[in-house]
Amino acid sequence: MTGLFDVLKPGGDEWALAEAIDPSRLPAHIAIIMDGNGRWARRRNLPRVAGHRAGMESVRVAVDTGARLGLQALTLYAFSIENWKRPRFEVDTLWRLLRLYLQRELPEINRQNIRLNAFGRLDALQPSVRRDLEEACAITSGNRGMQLNVAINYSGRAELVDALNAIIEEARREGRLDLLRVDEATIASRLYTAGLPDPDLLIRTSGEMRISNFLLWQIAYAELYVTDTLWPDFRRSDLLGAVLEYQKRDRRFGGLGPAQETPAEADGTETGQLIEALGAPR
Fold first, then answer.
1. Angle, helix 88-111 to helix 48-69, in steps of 10 degrees
2. pLDDT band, very low/low/confident/very high, at 260 (cuts 50, 70, 90)
């Protein structure tokens, strides 16, 4: 996290936010639903694509901040399978902006030791877009810093379908389809994010209270943080503020925190008394 203070102004608001963060309790993996580009443009009487262009700076800031914080992974929801329903001009502009982002930012991504990874149903992308993505991923494949995942032509449901089909196909090839049994570990090993920790923190901009088919399996226990800030206005202070909010949460993963567990509960006494009262065998 020391690299973060190299780009902050001492005594400024961002500096104060960074100082308040506990480096020992950082989320390993942050996922972001980047929403609000269209509304940002509409409020300024601009075409929707202007919002997408403005959002490129927010991507740059989020990636830089995540790397300087020392995150293990940052996953950005760039384009969903459902986004193909948008006007053709808007979709084509998104692909041009993606290629422009790779061209401009790849040297800095490489310098910061970031490993780029793209996932989703990439076969449906334009050949030029897919080629640029593959080349960028190959160039950064040896880096060992933060992994930057870009979800493109992605859907959480489609990911689960692809994972299950891969499991079935592998069992068929190996002649063990009749004996196939699937558990959580088997599914997790076939997801696009296999090998990475699940997101600890899911951020959604623009105030919408939904997860939009994003990382449905992986966010089972993620902390959700929704901000009214539109994506083109999302800056370093917004990301640092989300991390601070995350550190205030009591993550119990279905259990009880130490402050909620009484001595009787801890040794099972209260549970045993309840079972006896119900007349059930212990």
1. 20
2. low
Same domain, 92 and 230: yes
Which pTM value belongs to this model? 0.90
- Print the domain residue range for 52: 27-156+193-251
**Residue 38 located in a structural domain:** yes
Give yes or no: 35 in active site.
yes
The domain spanning residue 98 has which CATH number? 3.40.1180.10
Same domain, 236 and 275: no
Tokens of 258: 């130490």
Q: Which of 6, 13, 22, 35 is labelled catalytic?
A: 35
13, 83, 198, 233: which is the annotated catalytic residue? 83
* Beta pairing class for 115-119 and 147-154: parallel
Q: Which of 234, 261, 265, 239 is nearest to 250 (CA)?
A: 261
3-class state of residue 199 by DSSP: coil
